[in-house]
Amino acid sequence: MAPATTDLCDAYGDRLQVAEPVFRGFGSRTAFAGTVATVKVFEDNLLVRESLEQPGGGRVLAVDGGGSPRCALLGDRLATKASENGWSGVVVYGCIRDSAQIDSLDLGVRALNVHPRRSAKRGEGQRDVPVRFAGLEIRPGAWLCADADGIILADEPLSA
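The structure corresponding to this sequence follows.
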Protein backbone atom coordinates (compact mmCIF):
# COMPACT_ATOMS: atom_id res chain seq x y z
CA MET A 1 0.00 0.00 0.00
CA ALA A 2 1.31 3.43 -0.92
CA PRO A 3 1.78 5.89 1.93
CA ALA A 4 -0.57 8.89 1.97
CA THR A 5 0.74 11.87 0.04
CA THR A 6 -0.55 14.18 2.77
CA ASP A 7 1.46 12.35 5.44
CA LEU A 8 4.57 12.41 3.26
CA CYS A 9 4.18 16.14 2.64
CA ASP A 10 3.84 16.73 6.39
CA ALA A 11 6.91 14.61 7.14
CA TYR A 12 9.23 15.67 4.31
CA GLY A 13 8.03 19.14 3.29
CA ASP A 14 10.32 20.88 0.83
CA ARG A 15 12.28 17.70 0.09
CA LEU A 16 9.38 16.67 -2.16
CA GLN A 17 8.09 17.91 -5.48
CA VAL A 18 4.30 18.19 -5.64
CA ALA A 19 2.50 18.01 -8.99
CA GLU A 20 0.12 20.74 -10.02
CA PRO A 21 -3.47 19.47 -9.50
CA VAL A 22 -4.25 18.88 -13.17
CA PHE A 23 -4.67 15.08 -13.26
CA ARG A 24 -7.76 12.88 -13.17
CA GLY A 25 -7.62 9.43 -11.60
CA PHE A 26 -8.41 6.18 -13.41
CA GLY A 27 -7.91 2.48 -12.71
CA SER A 28 -9.02 0.55 -9.64
CA ARG A 29 -5.80 1.35 -7.77
CA THR A 30 -6.59 4.69 -6.18
CA ALA A 31 -3.13 4.91 -4.61
CA PHE A 32 0.17 3.73 -6.06
CA ALA A 33 3.88 4.31 -5.72
CA GLY A 34 7.08 3.13 -7.33
CA THR A 35 10.36 3.91 -8.99
CA VAL A 36 9.89 5.93 -12.15
CA ALA A 37 10.62 5.01 -15.76
CA THR A 38 10.05 7.77 -18.31
CA VAL A 39 8.89 8.19 -21.88
CA LYS A 40 8.77 11.45 -23.84
CA VAL A 41 6.48 11.33 -26.87
CA PHE A 42 4.05 13.51 -28.81
CA GLU A 43 0.85 12.00 -30.19
CA ASP A 44 2.68 8.67 -30.71
CA ASN A 45 2.41 5.84 -28.20
CA LEU A 46 4.69 3.15 -29.64
CA LEU A 47 7.36 3.80 -26.97
CA VAL A 48 4.66 3.67 -24.31
CA ARG A 49 3.70 0.22 -25.59
CA GLU A 50 7.33 -0.96 -25.68
CA SER A 51 7.83 0.21 -22.09
CA LEU A 52 4.67 -1.42 -20.72
CA GLU A 53 5.45 -4.71 -22.47
CA GLN A 54 8.50 -5.00 -20.21
CA PRO A 55 8.31 -6.31 -16.61
CA GLY A 56 7.22 -3.42 -14.42
CA GLY A 57 8.46 -4.67 -11.06
CA GLY A 58 6.16 -2.24 -9.27
CA ARG A 59 7.45 0.77 -11.20
CA VAL A 60 5.50 3.79 -12.42
CA LEU A 61 5.71 4.92 -16.04
CA ALA A 62 5.71 8.71 -16.41
CA VAL A 63 4.62 9.64 -19.95
CA ASP A 64 5.36 13.17 -21.09
CA GLY A 65 2.91 13.51 -23.95
CA GLY A 66 3.35 17.26 -24.21
CA GLY A 67 -0.12 17.75 -22.74
CA SER A 68 -1.72 17.12 -26.13
CA PRO A 69 -5.54 17.09 -26.07
CA ARG A 70 -5.78 15.64 -29.61
CA CYS A 71 -5.40 11.88 -29.03
CA ALA A 72 -4.95 9.20 -26.38
CA LEU A 73 -1.57 7.74 -25.42
CA LEU A 74 -2.96 4.89 -23.28
CA GLY A 75 -5.97 2.68 -23.85
CA ASP A 76 -7.38 -0.50 -22.35
CA ARG A 77 -5.00 -2.85 -24.19
CA LEU A 78 -1.85 -1.07 -23.04
CA ALA A 79 -3.24 -0.62 -19.54
CA THR A 80 -4.00 -4.36 -19.41
CA LYS A 81 -0.39 -5.08 -20.44
CA ALA A 82 0.81 -2.73 -17.70
CA SER A 83 -1.29 -4.50 -15.08
CA GLU A 84 -0.30 -7.99 -16.26
CA ASN A 85 3.39 -7.02 -16.35
CA GLY A 86 3.45 -5.70 -12.79
CA TRP A 87 3.47 -1.93 -13.28
CA SER A 88 2.12 -0.05 -10.27
CA GLY A 89 0.84 2.90 -12.25
CA VAL A 90 1.04 5.17 -15.28
CA VAL A 91 1.01 8.97 -15.20
CA VAL A 92 0.16 10.47 -18.59
CA TYR A 93 0.70 14.14 -19.31
CA GLY A 94 -1.86 13.83 -22.08
CA CYS A 95 -5.03 11.83 -22.64
CA ILE A 96 -6.17 8.23 -22.29
CA ARG A 97 -9.11 6.36 -23.79
CA ASP A 98 -11.20 3.32 -22.84
CA SER A 99 -11.51 4.84 -19.37
CA ALA A 100 -14.36 2.56 -18.23
CA GLN A 101 -12.29 -0.54 -19.03
CA ILE A 102 -9.17 0.96 -17.41
CA ASP A 103 -11.22 1.63 -14.26
CA SER A 104 -11.71 -2.15 -13.89
CA LEU A 105 -7.95 -2.91 -13.98
CA ASP A 106 -5.61 -3.36 -11.02
CA LEU A 107 -3.55 -0.35 -12.05
CA GLY A 108 -3.30 3.27 -11.01
CA VAL A 109 -3.58 5.79 -13.84
CA ARG A 110 -3.44 9.57 -13.82
CA ALA A 111 -4.05 11.57 -16.99
CA LEU A 112 -5.12 15.06 -17.99
CA ASN A 113 -8.29 13.86 -19.69
CA VAL A 114 -9.87 11.34 -22.02
CA HIS A 115 -10.05 11.34 -25.81
CA PRO A 116 -11.51 8.69 -28.14
CA ARG A 117 -8.90 9.01 -30.92
CA ARG A 118 -5.84 6.73 -30.82
CA SER A 119 -2.36 8.06 -31.35
CA ALA A 120 0.09 7.47 -34.18
CA LYS A 121 2.50 4.51 -34.06
CA ARG A 122 5.70 5.90 -35.59
CA GLY A 123 8.06 5.16 -32.71
CA GLU A 124 9.14 8.77 -32.33
CA GLY A 125 10.24 9.99 -28.93
CA GLN A 126 12.67 9.06 -26.17
CA ARG A 127 12.79 6.59 -23.29
CA ASP A 128 14.55 6.91 -19.93
CA VAL A 129 15.20 10.66 -20.20
CA PRO A 130 14.36 13.42 -17.72
CA VAL A 131 10.92 14.92 -18.38
CA ARG A 132 9.13 18.02 -17.09
CA PHE A 133 5.39 18.46 -16.66
CA ALA A 134 2.81 19.65 -14.12
CA GLY A 135 5.52 21.43 -12.15
CA LEU A 136 7.60 18.26 -11.75
CA GLU A 137 11.13 17.54 -12.94
CA ILE A 138 11.10 13.76 -13.26
CA ARG A 139 14.29 11.75 -13.63
CA PRO A 140 14.30 8.02 -14.31
CA GLY A 141 14.86 6.26 -11.00
CA ALA A 142 13.05 8.88 -8.90
CA TRP A 143 10.19 7.73 -6.68
CA LEU A 144 6.59 8.75 -7.38
CA CYS A 145 3.60 8.37 -5.08
CA ALA A 146 0.01 9.15 -6.09
CA ASP A 147 -3.33 9.02 -4.31
CA ALA A 148 -6.64 10.88 -4.27
CA ASP A 149 -4.93 13.97 -2.83
CA GLY A 150 -2.22 14.35 -5.46
CA ILE A 151 1.11 13.23 -6.84
CA ILE A 152 4.47 13.69 -5.16
CA LEU A 153 8.00 12.96 -6.30
CA ALA A 154 11.09 12.21 -4.22
CA ASP A 155 14.67 11.18 -4.92
CA GLU A 156 14.17 7.87 -3.07
CA PRO A 157 11.34 5.75 -1.64
CA LEU A 158 9.79 7.28 1.47
CA SER A 159 7.56 6.14 4.30
CA ALA A 160 5.30 8.26 6.47
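The chain has four helices and twelve strands.
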